[in-house]
Amino acid sequence: MRIVLIGFMASGKSSVAPLLASALGLEVVEMDALIVAKAGKSIKDIFEAGGEPAFRKLEAAVAAELQNRDNVVISTGGGVVARSETMKYLTDKGVVVELSCSFDALMERIRPTLPRPLFKDEAQAKATYAKRQSLYHKYASVHVNTDGKSVDEIVEAVFRKIQGIKKS
Ligand code: S3P
Predict the structure, then answer these.
(1) In CA terms, which of 67, 122, 145, 152 is 20 to 30 Å from 75?
(2) Which ligand 1 atom sits nearest the alpha carbon of residue 128?
(3) Residue 167 C-alpha to ligand 1 middle, in angstroms?
(4) Could you write out the DSSP letters of every residue in 116-134?
(5) Given ligand 1 and candidates 5, 28, 32, 59, which is best to mutate, with the most ligand atoms within 8 Å of its CB?
């Protein structure tokens, strides 16, 4: 089984992925970590050197390398939905799970982690959030709203929905 977690920055993908992987007996892969390893520099430096296009190109290359990887939970970056090519590699054989969250709750979590490469100000982040909602929704077959839920509760909700898919 292959699970791909998508959702806006700070939606909980990186916290949920290892717990979900251990609950399902799967490995966990962080795409951002693979991108950093491939580029040999930090995400901040990738953005500074080549802008978003350079980052998306690396993201697509990492997704291509993961195309046939099974028994894994793949945690993605929030902008992974930006390129359909990247999503094709990821969705081919995977169950895509969207972790959704209200913009206000996300902002509470994002504020202490600023600065971030793609975060200029709240208005711009809100526009990006609005633009990506339909993409997250389109690509995912499992949707879990994380508002007000602890990480354990989110893992449990995803786990239950995945079991439902395995049985059907
Ligand atoms: C990005 C989100 C980041 C990282 C990069 C781009 C985005 O990942 O991939 O900075 O476009 O939203 P997280 O969602 O883990 O913060």
Answers:
(1) 122
(2) 12
(3) 33
(4) -TT---HHHHHHHHHHHHH
(5) 32
pLDDT above 70 covers what percent of the chain?
99
Widest CA span in the chain? 47
**Dist CA 48 CA 137 (whole Å):** 30
Give percent of the chain above pLDDT 90: 91
**Count of domains forming the chain:** 1
Residue 60 lies in a domain: no
Closest CA to 129 of 7, 5, 12: 7
Within a domain: residue 42?
Answer: no
- Whole-angstrom Cα distance, residue 163 to residue 168? 9
CATH number of the domain at 158, please.
Answer: 3.40.50.300
Say if 97 falls within a structural domain: yes
∠ CA 118-121-122, rounded to 5°: 110
8 Å CB contact between 76 and 90: yes
Closest to 59 measured CA to CA, from 135, 93, 50: 50
143 is a domain residue: yes
Q: Which one has a higher pLDDT value, 138 or 93?
A: 138
Query: Domain range holding 99?
Result: 2-29+70-167
